[in-house]
From TrEMBL:
Gene: LOC113725810
CDD domains the record matches: PMM_PGM
Protein name (database record): phosphoglucomutase (alpha-D-glucose-1,6-bisphosphate-dependent)
Enzyme class: isomerase
Ranges where the Alpha-D-phosphohexomutase alpha/beta/alpha domain occurs: 93-234, 266-377, 382-484
Cofactor annotation: Mg(2+)
Taxonomic lineage from the root: Eukaryota, Viridiplantae, Streptophyta, Embryophyta, Tracheophyta
BP-aspect Gene Ontology terms: glucose metabolic process
Family of the protein in this entry: Belongs to the phosphohexose mutase family.
Reaction(s) this enzyme catalyzes, per UniProt: alpha-D-glucose 1,6-bisphosphate + L-seryl-[protein] = O-phospho-L-seryl-[protein] + alpha-D-glucose 6-phosphate; O-phospho-L-seryl-[protein] + alpha-D-glucose 1-phosphate = alpha-D-glucose 1,6-bisphosphate + L-seryl-[protein]; alpha-D-glucose 1-phosphate = alpha-D-glucose 6-phosphate
Pfam assignment, any one: PGM_PMM_III
């Protein structure tokens, strides 16, 4: 990209930021509550609210939203009382997640500013152990965030942590998770890219009081082991938070925090990708009407020029009127930004039908997940989205392996293998798991170009295995544009046609059975061990039943076919929960399968089977 002026729009010395926080330690421990009643919505009025909100404003806004919200109002906590185990509890697979906003009963704040600062400093030290700084510059770390109400507070704390470790801080403001990986690969010194590491502040679709972090380097998102390492380091950093150390920090902090409009590059790359695929046509989507639902998360940029972020649809010639919930609002007042959520899918479907649009696109809060709706209101999410993406990718790479999560339908396997001529590897749940598996397959000589989950996470080999909901939608737009260019016609029929022949179950359900970790039946063991015992017991029951057949290839939990359907019982990636997925050709058959699971599950008193009981009685 040609050099552009005005990319680096703000220069603030870390030293200054540290000065403002010179009594950080004391404040953290004594007055967190008052200090941090702030930034209820960083985006109110269309601008990042830089000033702290008064209590009155806060109350008024809370009333407006019919909720009481206090930002980061953690009780005073001595540094020494936060243990390593408290840090380790913040691990959520390959992410860090916690409660960042007080006010929800039973959910105390776990992601306070000092804890955040320690985590950021720990990431910096992890990075320093792996990357030698260039002689000409210090290592640099970029920070982005979604629309959450605690975003700005945590961004400041992360910046202090990175600055504390002596690295350069580059703030992107509102950004998408994939953009935060992309910036580690972009070569553009005008935008201070590539960065050596990046941090996305997000908790995806979780409620407003949560937040968390995802970390990236040019090698991709950090994995579970790295996150554990960072949290262990953070616990040690936290112990060093003393007044004396803060004075020292003030002396050492001499580098700058800079602000860069990186989303301009990211969106421009998406636009270029569609133009290129359409044969370098400037406006390949001319005449298409596409509505976007960003669910008040960070995905508004796809439709609209928002908060200095570029847009995607309009430069390509599409009409985006009727797009909705593009304004970032961390209270998520319209629906949960989650393409797996029923209400969210109903909202975008209604927008498509009301506007007589050709296509609807919906994103989750941080835009690493997406789904679509065709012009007739047919949802293209979950198995259908996988089928659609598989059809597109298999046209480009015949015979390639599609890696998916474990809860995909039997009909999807038939579709990929029989209709499309590809190979389906139904692997484990978790976007990182499927991406790593696809990379591994390629490394052992099995070609794979797509890793995609029913959750709407998806990554392509051609896009550096970047887990990007916006790029998935770009692939659909490419298809629309090339169909138009070749005279195949307008509208989303070309997409709908690609999933023709996909067999779909008449009945599908997911029940999540909770394990009570305090129950005596755990006998001091972990919920994982307990969950494994349930699965093992269920396995013993199913092998003796001639009507049931255990899936010969399965990578997590137990998957069983029978009664014209199947079920999968597995351990959740993160929670003390056994998710149960059932698909069958009728509700009656689904109940028969559920009864098999119930016969095993009811022997485990720490397992809450009420959802299962309700299901079989319905
Ligand atoms: O195992 P579960 O509780 O169903 O959660 C599984 C999900 O966890 C996270 O949200 C990951 O981002 C997803 O990739 C994964 O599918």
């Amino acid at each position: 990209m040609a050099a552009m002026s005005g990319k680096i729009i703000e220069h603030v010395l870390v030293a200054k930021s540290c000065q403002q926080n010179r009594h950080l330690s004391t404040q953290y421990r004594q007055a967190c509550c008052n200090l941090n009643r702030c930034n209820l919505s960083p985006f109110l009025g269309g601008n990042l609210a830089r000033s702290r909100m008064s209590t009155i404003q806060l109350r008024a806004f809370s009333k407006l939203k019919r909720r009481i919200v206090f930002c980061n109002a953690a009780p005073p906590t001595a540094a020494s009382s936060i243990e390593k185990s408290d840090f380790l509890k913040l691990q959520n697979g390959s992410d860090i997640r916690g409660v960042a906003v007080a006010g929800v009963e039973g959910e105390p704040v776990t992601l306070t500013e000092p804890i955040t600062e320690a985590i950021a400093a720990a990431f910096a030290s992890w990075l320093q152990d792996r990357k030698q700084p260039d002689a000409a510059r210090r290592l640099r770390v970029s920070i982005g965030h979604d629309s959450r109400i605690s975003a700005k507070t945590l961004q400041d704390a992360v910046s202090r942590g990175i600055g504390r470790a002596g690295l350069d801080v580059i703030q992107y403001g509102l950004a998408s998770t994939p953009a935060m990986f992309s910036c580690t690969l972009t070569e553009n010194e005008d935008f201070l890219c590539p960065v050596d590491g990046s941090i996305m502040i997000t908790a995806s679709h979780l409620p407003y009081n949560r937040n968390g972090f995802k970390f990236f380097t040019s090698a991709g998102g950090l994995g579970k082991a790295d996150i554990k390492d960072i949290l262990e380091r953070a616990a040690s950093v936290y112990k060093t938070f003393t007044d004396e150390d803060l004075r020292d920090l003030e002396r050492k902090a001499s580098q700058s925090i800079r602000r860069v409009e990186y989303m301009t590059i990211y969106t421009s790359n998406l636009v270029q990708a569609v133009r290129k695929a359409a044969g370098n046509i400037e406006k390949p989507l001319e005449g298409f009407h596409i509505v976007v639902d960003a669910g008040n998360g960070a995905g508004g940029f796809f439709a609209l020029f928002l908060f200095k972020q570029g847009k995607v649809l309009e430069p390509l010639g599409a009409i985006a009127s009727g797009s909705q919930f593009l304004e970032p609002d961390g209270m998520f007042p319209n629906h949960i930004p989650n393409p797996e959520d029923k209400a969210a899918m109903e909202a975008i479907t209604k927008a498509v039908l009301d506007n007589k649009a050709d296509l609807g696109i919906i994103f989750d809060t941080d835009v690493d997940r997406s789904a679509a709706v065709d012009s007739s209101g047919r949802e293209l999410n979950r198995n259908r989205l996988i089928a659609l993406m598989s059809a597109i990718v298999l046209e480009e790479h015949p015979g390639t392996t599609i890696v998916t999560d474990s809860v995909t339908s039997d009909g999807l396997t038939t579709f990929i293998e029989k209709k499309l001529g590809g190979k389906h590897r139904r692997f484990k749940r978790g976007y990182k798991n499927i991406i790593d598996e696809a990379i591994r397959l390629n490394s052992v000589g099995e070609e794979s170009h797509l890793a995609i989950e029913t959750s709407g996470h998806g990554a392509l080999k051609e896009n550096h295995w970047l887990d990007d909901g916006a790029y998935l939608m770009v692939k659909l737009l490419n298809k629309l544009a090339s169909a138009k260019a070749s005279g195949e016609g307008r509208g989303s029929k070309v997409l709908t046609g690609l999933v023709e022949g996909l067999e779909e179950p008449a009945f599908a359900a997911e029940l999540r059975l909770k394990i009570d970790q305090t129950h005596a039946d755990l006998k001091g063991g972990s919920f994982r061990e307990y969950g494994e015992a349930v699965i093992h017991h269920l396995e013993n029951i199913t092998v003796t039943d001639p009507k049931l057949q255990k899936a010969p290839v399965n990578y997590e939990g137990i998957r069983v076919s029978g009664y014209d359907g199947w079920f999968l019982l597995r351990l959740s990636l993160h929670d003390p929960v056994l998710p149960l997925n059932i698909e069958a050709s009728s509700q009656e058959d689904a109940v028969k399968l559920a009864l098999v699971v119930l016969s095993a599950a009811r022997e485990f008193p720490a397992l809450d089977v009420s959802a299962l009981n309700k299901f079989v009685q319905a």
